[in-house]
């Protein structure tokens, strides 16, 4: 035993999944359909992360969600299933093909009417939401898109999420690459810059969890 986070071996991961994953059949089907897309399936979140995010939706009582980077809509569906009846998600992505796959399963699960898909560059969509008076109107945001855009999405998100609301940021450990300060990879550098900024950002309360590929929880503070 130790006072640092445990190392997850393959055997321990399998145990964790066997003993705690309660993946609804429709989410399992969407995961299988996404796997058929080939290597790109890596862009989908881990199922235990989806289950954790759904619990966060329930714990926070969130009813208005914002997602940047929907892909085939697994995280979208996991969260939509956890929403109250009147809840809704604004889901942003640039790919009609990926989100069309997700939409089939959103409909099948009976929550398609809770998800409003916005196709196009997310930064533009978020600015449009602000222009429409949506500042402080979202309870929870999930950022999981192009890493070069993360800082922009985070800054716009801090305006769109209400005080006390939560911003979740995915892939913040980037397969472990973030420890290399000299990495020439632009995505690695973008994630490192954002992580370093959030570490001392007084506007938020912070927790970085080693679930999936690393998930940051940033709660917007009530006072700036
Ligand atoms: Ca991701």
Structure write-up:
The protein has 224 residues and is an alpha/beta fold. The chain has a single domain, classed as Vaccinia Virus protein VP39 (Rossmann fold, 3-Layer(aba) Sandwich). It is built from eight helices and seven strands, in the order αααβαβαβαβαβαββ. The chain has a seven-stranded mixed sheet with strand order 3-2-1-4-5-7-6, with helices on both faces. Helix 7 links the parallel strand 4 and strand 5. The longest helix is centred in the first third of the chain and has 14 residues. The relative contact order is 0.12. The model has no long low-confidence stretch (mean pLDDT 97). Bound molecules: calcium ion. The site of calcium ion (CA) has 5 residues, from loops.
Name its key features:
224 residues; alpha/beta; seven-stranded mixed β-sheet; 42% helix; 20% strand; binds calcium ion
Short description:
With 224 residues, the protein is of the alpha/beta class. Helix content is 42%, strand content 20%. The chain has helices at residues 10-20, 25-35, 47-60, 74-82, 96-108, 122-131, 150-160, 186-199, and strands at residues 64-68, 88-93, 115-119, 138-143, 161-170, 204-209, 215-220.
């Amino acid at each position: 035993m130790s006072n640092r986070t445990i190392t997850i071996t393959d055997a321990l991961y399998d145990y964790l999944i066997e003993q705690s994953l309660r993946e609804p059949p429709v989410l399992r089907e969407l995961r299988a359909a996404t796997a058929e897309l080939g290597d790109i399936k890596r862009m989908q979140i881990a199922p235990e992360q989806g289950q954790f995010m759904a619990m966060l939706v329930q714990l926070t009582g969130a009813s208005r969600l914002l997602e940047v980077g929907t892909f085939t809509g697994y995280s979208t569906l996991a969260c939509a299933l956890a929403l109250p009846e009147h809840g809704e998600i604004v889901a942003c992505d640039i790919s009609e093909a990926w989100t069309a796959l997700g939409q089939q399963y959103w409909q099948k699960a009976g929550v398609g009417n809770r998800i409003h898909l916005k196709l196009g560059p997310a930064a533009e969509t978020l600015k449009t939401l602000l222009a429409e008076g949506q500042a402080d109107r979202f309870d929870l945001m999930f950022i999981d898109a192009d890493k070069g855009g993360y800082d922009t999405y985070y800054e716009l998100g801090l305006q769109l999420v209400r005080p006390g609301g939560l911003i979740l940021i995915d892939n913040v450990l980037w397969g472990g690459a973030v420890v290399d300060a000299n990495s020439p990879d632009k995505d690695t550098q973008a994630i490192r810059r954002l992580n370093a900024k959030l570490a001392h950002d007084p506007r938020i309360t912070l927790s970085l969890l080693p679930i999936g590929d690393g998930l940051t929880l940033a709660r917007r503070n009530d006072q700036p």
